[in-house]
Amino acid sequence: MRRIIHNSTAILACLAILGPDIAQAQVPMPQIQLAQNEGRLQETEQRQRERRREQRQPQSDRQERRQQQQRNDNQQQQTQQREQREQRQQQQAQQRQQQERREQRQQQQAEQRQQQERREQRQQEQAQQRQQQERREQREQEQAQQRQREERQRERREADREQAQERRERQERREERAERQQQERREQRQQQRRDRPALASGDTARQRASNMPGLHGVLSREVDDGLRLDQLRCLGGGRAPCANDAPMVTPRGVVVNTNPRGELVLAPSGRQMNRVDGDGRIVRRAAEEDTRRTQSAIEAALERSARRANALDDRRGGGLFEQLITEGNSRRSSQEFGTSLRDALSGNDRRDRRNDWRRSNDDDDSGSDLTKALVLGLGALAVGSMLNNNRQVALSSPDRVVLTRQDGSQEVIKDEVALLRQPGSTVATENFDDGSSRTIVTRPDGSKVVTIRDADLRVLRRTLVTPDGRSTQLIDDTAEVEPVDIASLPAPAPVPVDTSSMDEAALAAALRREADVNRNFTLGQIRNIPEVRALVAPIDIDAITFDTGSAAITTDQAQQLSVLGRVIQDAIADNPQEIFLIEGHTDTVGSDAMNLALSDRRAESVALALSEYFDVPPENLVVQGYGEQFLKVRAEGDIRDNRRAAVRRITDLLHHEG
User: Fold this and answer.
1) How many helices (H) and strands (E) in the chain?
2) In the predicted model, is pLDDT for residue 350 greater than 50?
3) Which residues fall in a compositionally biased region of kind Basic and acidic residues (predicted)?
4) pTM of the predicted model over 0.70
């Protein structure tokens, strides 16, 4: 029992001790409550010590003490209850305080939240301001960056332009260097070719070599012997290399071209000025070789029947025109012709002869238009007008008419008696119904030259009658002749390479060299068929040089003809039937018609100079111009060697014996 009571008392004491702790665990206690708990714990410990002392005391004492203890416990319980009530009150007060503090804290928190919201609002506003400021700064920065980019772009463009300019300059310098290098390489190649040019081996080179084996052999030997490019000369004059890849001539006279590799190729046959004869020697080609065959040449080659004309009979003609030749109406070699060929070409030269032409047509219907225009001097033919045989007037002047044939070739017609019109002579021309004419030139010594021409003013017969009545027939184209087989003609006569250095004996020998022919030819065949004319070698008259467009010969130049004049005069003295053909030639500058008329005028001037200065009988001279048909140097352009005059002795062709 005692033990139970003791245990109960212990439990109560424990509860009394632990009660405040439990309450404190539920509700936070202030610092004073903790002090009270410590006091009660001390009292509990004090009672426990007292109970242990009581247990050691006698039972009565213990009972008394238990009672006392019971009373104390009751008091203590009451005290505890009171304390608990106070504690609960205190806790309630504390709870109210805590509630107040919570409300205060909530209020403070609300105020803090408001303050926080205001701060956040201010911060937001400040942030917005900062954002706006940042945006402004960003825009400014972007603008600055844009300006910087634009500035950099301008700088880059400027730099690009400068770089492009530098690149262009570098490119130009590279191109200049490349051009210099190419030029140096070209010069080196030229130097190499100049040292040892090679022969081309292409199709064109092989074809030309097969067509001209002789010239190819000569060229091959020259190359093998060390031919250099600087030994070549341009065909038109000057040293190689030639402009526009013009043909060149080797030292031995072979005309060549160069291909893109600088190799030598034989020039076409039409460009070659030399050929290789049967003995393998290189000889000068006649200018008439390999030329186009004209309609006049074809007609002359086919000519067979004898020409007929009323003027060949002894009967009288339908009209007679006489003229006394004086210094005023005759022409000398130093004088220009009265009519410009340019005006004659355009048809502007009519002068004041139209009325004479009309009066002649009214008074006399005999004679041809050519006779009236060139022999009687009654006017000029109209350029563009058509004559017989479909010939059209291309150039018309009082002294010459150039006609164009159907094949495009041209022929010049003139007064063949013009050379005989010397001061003191009387010229009587009798016209006949068929257009032929008979002209008798009577000289102061009594000698006469009778010339009979057909309607086209071609000479049919020319006869010299001496003062004692003896007749010498110089030209006779009235007999029948055989047609000319051009293919069967002998090879052209060798052409002298250099006639300027010939003395009188050498020149006489060259002129008197007999032609290799066995038949006669008419004057028309000699004039119009190049292959017939080439049977006699020409002698170039290098002493005469004409000004551009001029046919006059100065006195100083005429004196250069002294050797030729003496040779011809001596030949005629030995044989009064000697006939010499004086030829005129031009280069390719100018129109065909003007060049043809100009060359014919120049040939007439040379013949006049021979008669005036060296007493060469004019009836033994025949003049003919060929314009640019037969080039000595077979090249286009202004070439001095092509503006030349030449003389041939054609006696053997006209009067072959046997």
Assistant:
1) 16, 20
2) no
3) 40-67, 114-123, 132-197, 348-361
4) no
Residues 594/567, Cβ–Cβ less than 8 Å: no
Per-residue tokens: 466: 């001496």
**What gap in Å lies between CA 547 and CA 549, rounded to an integer?**
6
* 394, HSE (Cβ side, Cα atoms, 13 Å): 20
Amino acid letter at 367? G
pLDDT tens per residue, range 24-53: 544 444 555 666 667 777 778 777 887 777
Residue pair 640/461 in contact (Cβ under 8 Å)? The answer is: no
Sign of the C-alpha dihedral computed for residues 105, 107, 113 and 118 taken in this order:
negative
Sign, Cα dihedral of 636, 641, 645, 651? negative
Are the beta carbons of 402 and 395 closer than 8 angstroms?
Answer: yes
Q: How far apart are CA 632 and CA 645, in angstroms?
A: 11
As a whole number of angstroms, the distance between CA 207 and CA 213 comes to 10
- Sorted by sequence, the CB contacts under 8 Å of residue 656 that are 6+ apart come out as 517, 518, 519, 520
The C-alpha atoms of residue 402 and residue 625 are separated, in whole angstroms, by 11
The pLDDT, as a whole number, for residue 19 is: 56
What is the helix (H) or strand (E) element at residue 581, kind and residue range?
strand 580-584
Identity of the residue numbered 651: T
Q: 469: left (phi > 0), else alpha (psi -120 to 50), else beta?
A: left
Of 591, 514, 564, 536, nearest to 286 by C-alpha is: 536
- Helices 31-56 and 2-26 meet at what angle, rounded to 10? 170
Structural contact between residues 110 and 103, judged by C-beta atoms closer than 8 angstroms: no
| pLDDT recorded at residue 97 | 82
**Residue 36 phi, psi (nearest 5):** -60, -40
526, 624 contact by CB (below 8 A): no
Domains in the chain with CATH codes:
2-194 (no CATH), 203-284 (no CATH), 305-480 (no CATH), 486-658 (3.30.1330.60)
**How far apart (Å, rounded) are the C-alpha atoms in residues 583 and 607?**
10
Per DSSP, 416 falls in state T
Higher per-residue confidence, 432 vs 55: 432
